[in-house]
Amino acid sequence: HYYITNNLRVPPGMTFTDDDINILKSTLVAHGQEHLFAYWDDLSPDQKDDLYRDVQSIDFADHLRSFERCMRKELSAPGKEDYLQPLPPDACESVFVSNKINERWTNIGLKEISEGKVALLLMAGGQGTRLGVPYPKGMYKVGLQSGKSLYQIQAERVRRQEQLAAEMYGSSKAIRWYIMTSEHTKKATVDYFKSNGWFGLSEENIIFFEQEMIPCTSLDGKILMDSKFSIARAPGGNGDLYRAMGNEGVLQDMLKKGIRSVHCYCVDNILVKVPDPLFIGCCLDRQSDCGAKVVSKAYPTEAVGVICECNGNWKVVEYSEISSETAHMVDSEGKLLFSQGNICNHYFTTDFLTKVIEGKESELIHHVARKKIPTIDRSGERIVPEKINGIKMEKFVFDVFQFSEKFTVLEVARNEEFSPLKNPSGAPKCSPETCLEDLSNQHQRWIIRAGGTFKNEGLCEISPLVSCTGENLEELVKDKFFSLPLYLDVASNGYHNGHLGTNGLHSKL
Questions:
Q1: Residues 226 and 184: beta-carbon distance below 8 Å
Q2: Which are the contacts of 300, defined by CB distance < 8 A and separation ≥ 6?
Q3: Phi and psi of 184, rounded to 5°?
Q4: Cα 402 from chain centre
Q5: β-sheet bridge partners, residue 313
Q6: Angle, CA of 38, 41 and 44, to the nearest 5°
Q7: Cα(148)–Cα(154) distance, integer angstroms
Q8: pTM, entire model
Q9: The predicted structure's pLDDT at residue 388
Q10: How many Å separate Cα 419 from the centre of its chain?
Q11: 436, 142 in Cβ contact below 8 A?
Q12: Which of 132, 120, 220, 138 is nearest to 181 (CA)?
């Protein structure tokens, strides 16, 4: 294991001279940001050191150029609806068409895994604030009988896919797992993996890196201060992924390791298949450089972004940018024209990522998020404003779709692949309870499909180490009756596979 992190231009404890301060002040004046040193004379030596390093780390010309571009885009952008087109049929595939094709794609993907050409790219910069917890979202436990967190579930799915690839092709190389954290989640995430023995994975194949924290800006372009000696900052959105990969050596590491296929996803989807050999195989079979999974919208105005063509480019258009009239449009068969809901589950080749990171990333324009941003008032006191006072500049991971030369959209089953954790306990949607229910229902379907029968209602859980997609369950459950709650687990000594327990809540025979 190792992790990569941002390096400020001036390391902690480095001394600076009066000339250094004067040069920096001149830079601030030239860019209209002299207010950042307004309280310099009030600061202690340590606080001056903190502020100097914080301010020195900003490329003001680049930051203000980004601010002006995104504000200009917001003011001048024509209505997207004028340019929206449904996805062309030749870009679309579906898991509902043919089990034989699905099996072929899965085998292609497993071969890619076995040859060590697959990497996972996890976006895990979010805190669990909306869930009411002070730690990273990936550490959250939704209430499974096993007590597993989102991170552990995903780690065990990775282990199982490595095993399946080895069983099919005789041996398998490790799946490399790149995890993008943020300033707020990096240490807790690394410590969590370490304290849990890397969940049975090889620590050398888990690579942590950190996304950049972008200065927050007032509505008139002034960088906001969080205190007299620190800049107000926020993560640059999940689309900051590409800059972070370039700056912190992630892309170079992928190329060095011979990675070709990268499966990218968000941490909060409890049903995510990681990696998904079917999805990888589909994109490889179609020779696509970029791909996205979608689910059919549950209803026309569902609050989910839609993948479509916009002005000749592949785009994700937010639900708020589509009128009700457009959302309800149907084709000759009565199907919604704009039905492909984005679930933030993507495929990239490393060639495509190289093109984006080395040549196209600078073309991406930030999106404007108007927010109430805590800052300091004229007296230097920190306040939480009652009204919107600034913007956070964000990029989205799907902004790069426009650069794809061969794009693939794969429709998947919502109840098998998409149940995000967004809201606290008790919320009607996207809560710990709905995630727990969706996973339990999925596992019950797998057992019924494999020939098992349930005597009653209740929770059901299958360890990913037993089955991660419903595979290989027949010999365990066919013609058997089960009482719920049920937990099918691999008995273990540490993380070594043992026997299967199938009796009651958590049996290990």
A1: no
A2: 324, 327, 328, 336
A3: -85, -20
A4: 19
A5: 310
A6: 120
A7: 10
A8: 0.89
A9: 95
A10: 14
A11: yes
A12: 138
pLDDT of residue 504: 35
* pLDDT score of 299: 92
**376/370 Cα distance (integer angstroms):** 18
For 136, the token pair is: 């990273």
- SS3 of residue 54 by DSSP: helix
Other beta carbons within 10 Å of 499 = 12
Task: Note whether 113 and 162 are within 8 A (CB).
Answer: yes
- What pLDDT is attached to residue 74? 75
150-195 confidence digits (pLDDT tens)? 999 999 999 999 999 999 999 989 999 999 999 889 999 999 999 9
- Coil, strand, or helix at residue 179? strand
Regions of the chain where pLDDT drops below 50 = 1-11, 492-509
Helix or strand (DSSP H, E) at 353: helix 350-355
Q: Which two tokens stand for residue 241?
A: 């992924």
List the structure tokens of 153. 């579930």
- Which residues are within 8 A (CB) of 326 and not within 5 positions of it... i.e. 6 or more apart? 81, 84, 338
CA 364 – CA 22 distance, rounded (Å): 34
Give the pLDDT confidence of 267-276 residue by residue, as tens digits: 999 999 999 9
| Kind and range of the H or E run holding 376 | strand 375-376
Say how far apart CA 457 and CA 170 lie, in whole Å.
40
Asked whether 125 and 266 are in contact (CB, 8 A), the reply is no
pLDDT of 95 reads 98
Please tell me the chain's helix, strand, coil percentages from 3-state DSSP, rounded to the nearest 5: 40, 25, 40
Residue with tokens 């780690």: 155
Tokens of 324: 């009700």
- Report the pLDDT value the prediction gives residue 509, as an integer from 0 to 100: 23
Report which DSSP code applies to 356: I
What pLDDT is attached to residue 17? 86
CA-based nearest residue to 396, from 310, 298, 294, 318: 318
Residue 206 host element (H or E) = strand 206-210
H or E element at residue 151: helix 150-169
Q: What is the pLDDT of residue 184?
A: 86
The number of residues in the chain equals 509
Strands (E), 112-193: 118-123, 176-181
Amino acid letter at 439? L
Whether the Cβ atoms of residue 114 and residue 166 lie closer than 8 Å to each other: yes
Residue 375, token pair as written in the block? 């800052």
Distance (Å, whole) CA 285 – CA 264: 18
N-terminal to C-terminal alpha carbon distance within the chain? 34
